[in-house]
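Exercise 7 asks you to align residues with tokens for two separate proteins.
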Amino acid sequence: MADPSIRIWSVYAGLIMAWLAVAPAAAADVASITTPTAPAPVSAPPPPLPGQAPPENVLGGSVASMPGEYSYNPSGRRDPFSVVLKDSKTGEPNQSLPPLQQLSLTELNVIGIVWGGFGYSAMVQAPDGKGYTVRQGTRVGPNGGAVSSITENAIVVQERFTDVYGNKQVREYVKLLHAKEGSE
């Protein structure tokens, strides 16, 4: 049995011989592929006849006067940089929602918290001076927030949302009970 290192060298020698036999033919094919050729001359469109309007391209604009020159006529086309999806929040409150869901959480003031037979209840005041009673589970704010708990001196509102990565998140807002006016 022959030495394994001699076998490996004989295989390498055979591969090199085969490559040397094929390389010149392959090089000729590659040279024919990569050799640049001159582009075919572009003939200019015929000039318009006297009394005729200049020809128009497919998009409706006039054809460029020289080959390689480009002009763009945006008339009748949409702006490519405009927002495609409009934001549903236009700044005006949705009139079909209850009053507490039309107001932002920053606009509400907690003016009183009461303990009763059914647990804590809180009274919140809107900017227009109207008061509303809220309990645990009451929907508050335009982002679908709900009162999660009421303590002796605050209410906690939770808003569930999806972040930019698609993860479900919970944002908590704590609205403290305002101190009595005139107290120090």
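Second protein for Exercise 7:
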Amino acid sequence: MQIRSPKPTRSRRLFAVRRKASAVPIDLRILILRRQRVILDSALADLYNVPVKRLNEQTKRNRGRFPADFMFQLTPRENQSLRSQFATSKIGRGGRRSLPYAFTEHGAIMAATVLNSNQAVEMSVFVVRAFVRLRQMLAANVEFTARLNELEKHLETHEGTIQEIVTAIRRLMNPPPGRRRKIGFALPLARTM
């Protein structure tokens, strides 16, 4: 009979963290608020495997490490907009009672250093990679949009040219009705008498 210690070994913990990180769609948790890519405190706490309360507590204790471009609190309007998207519980029925915080890429890294846990440090690498992937996707999207606009301009110029050609062909197909001259010799009216 083999007796195991209740505490998992370091290698098992690392494997569990990596498995969880690969299963969690970090890219989907990154939102764009106030023209910045951010991750909400609840998603970040879930990734770092700490309660949201503890994450917010540590950020308040170390407020000097979180300037406005690292972390900001959502307005009630932004929160309401996100609540309708996420379908969370109503206030007073066991849901969140305070406005959530949003962490930018640098704020998420700083939160890992403030939490001072191995899992937070390891997961911060995955968070940074997700932000980098998102940045690359947006850059590719901007390039794609620019090319699409360029093609649209070419199409508009070609469309005008094609429309002129079609109009000219229609004019040639239907000549304007005019006086048709009779074929043959016609005597002048004055000489016939």
